[in-house]
Structure formats: C-alpha cells, structure tokens
Amino acid sequence: MNSFRAASRIALRAKPTGALLAPRRNYAEAAGPADKIRLSLTLPHQSIYKTSDVIQVNIPAESGDMGILANHVPSIEQLRPGVIDIIEEGAGSKQFFLSGGFAVVQPDSQLSINAVEAFPLEDFSPEAVRAQLAEAQRIANGSGTEQDIVEAKIELEVLETLQAALK
Amino acid sequence: MVAAWKAAGLTYNKYLSIAARVVRRSLKEQPRLAAERRGDMQLKFAKWDGGKQGEVKSLAKESVEQ
Asked: What is the pLDDT of residues A22-45, one digit of tens each?
C-alpha cells in the first residue's frame, strides 16, 4: 500500500516536467505565419502561385468584391471575370486578369484560386480589346442566331471589365 | 438572380470557355500566340459501322459546332 502511494507520487511529479520540456509542434506552426494567407493560384496548364505566403488577396467574387486576409471565414466564391490583386510582403501588389473560376478559402488560412486563364495586366493589348469590343457590340445588336448573341454578350461583359482595368 | 448565360441555356463550362477565349484574344501578339498554341489539338475520329470506317472528322471542329 505504502509503496504504491510512493510510486504514484513520483508519477505525478514526473508528468508535468516531461510535457514542458518536450518540443511540441502544433497546427498553427504547420499552417505558416499567423498574419499571412497561403495562396495557390492555379490554371489548368500552370501554377502562378504555389502555396506562397501573401498578406492580402482582393478577388472579384460573384457576390461582390472582397479582400481576403489571414484567418478568413472558410468560404467558396465564384469569380467574375476581373482583376485580382495580390499584396505580398515587400514586393508590393501584383495584378492579374482572371477569366473566371473559383476561390476556396480553407479553414487553415489557405486560399486556392482556380481559373481557366490568368495574365498580368501588361500582357493585354488595349487595341485588341477595343477592336473586339466593337465587333462584339455589332454582333450583340445584330440579327444573328440566339447563340451568337449570347456569346457576344458574355464577351462584351469580359471586354468592358478588361478595358476598365487597363485604364 | 439567374446569370444571363444560364438563362440562355448555356452550361457553366461553355460560359467559362467563351470568357477564356475572349481573354486570350485580347492579349498582345507574343503571349497570345503562346496561349493559342497551347490549345492546339489534332485529334481525329471516325465512326465504324458494319466493319467499315466512316468519315474521319476533326474533334476540335466537331466540338465547336455543338
């Protein structure tokens, strides 16, 4: 009886010291710095950002423009064709025009953006945009098939956003 | 609210591909050529009926028409 009590007292004493000394790895460390969001911007043929830590990402969601910081509420957003801003530490902000896709905010400060096409704004030619705008407007107001008119209207929406972004 | 493309009976995939196509066409010469080359495909198919090969068609052309 006595020896059992002594043994349990030693066990009680040993437990907390051992736990304090052992290095612990927890979820917060595995997820990266607490004030950064981990961005993956992927296209079918290329990944522009691959789990890189950035400060903020502004996206044109179908439900409205939104800025995403670290520890954002998990959500799935459909993206309109438009410009996304990526604010990196030190490097300033980078802008890409996305043709539409989805952004998924995961619970551990991860943001995955999927799009079909994404290009930096300087890759666009304002002349090409203007020429296509005129062409799309002509088709949208013309007497083509219903299919042609619908396609022209989608193109118009994209081109107008693009033209506004290039100014 | 229903999106205009949905009201017109288009699928989301079709809508995305139209938006992506117009974005590619708006690029400057160099990136545009690179982007359009990526979409190149020369797959052909033919339907076999009763042991005979039918007409050989280009998959790209057929899928555009649909």
From this structure: 566 655 555 567 788 999 999 999
Give the minimum alpha-carbon distance from A52 to chain B in angstroms, rounded to a whole number. Answer: 25
Q: Is residue A54 part of a domain?
A: yes
Q: Which of chain A's residues have a Cβ under 8 Å away from the Cβ of B15?
A: 100, 154
Q: Are residues A141 and A118 in the same domain?
A: no
Q: Are residues A98 and A75 in the same domain?
A: yes
Average pLDDT over residues A126-130: 93
Helices (H), chain A: 2-21, 27-30, 126-141, 146-166
**Residue A39 in 3-state DSSP?**
strand
Domain that holds residue A141: 124-166
Q: Which chain A positions have a beta carbon within 8 Å of B22's beta carbon? A: 99, 132, 136, 154-155, 158-159
The verdict on a CB contact (< 8 Å) between B19 and A99 is yes
Chain A positions in Cβ-Cβ contact with residue B40 (cut-off 8 Å): none
Question: ipTM of the assembly?
Answer: 0.74
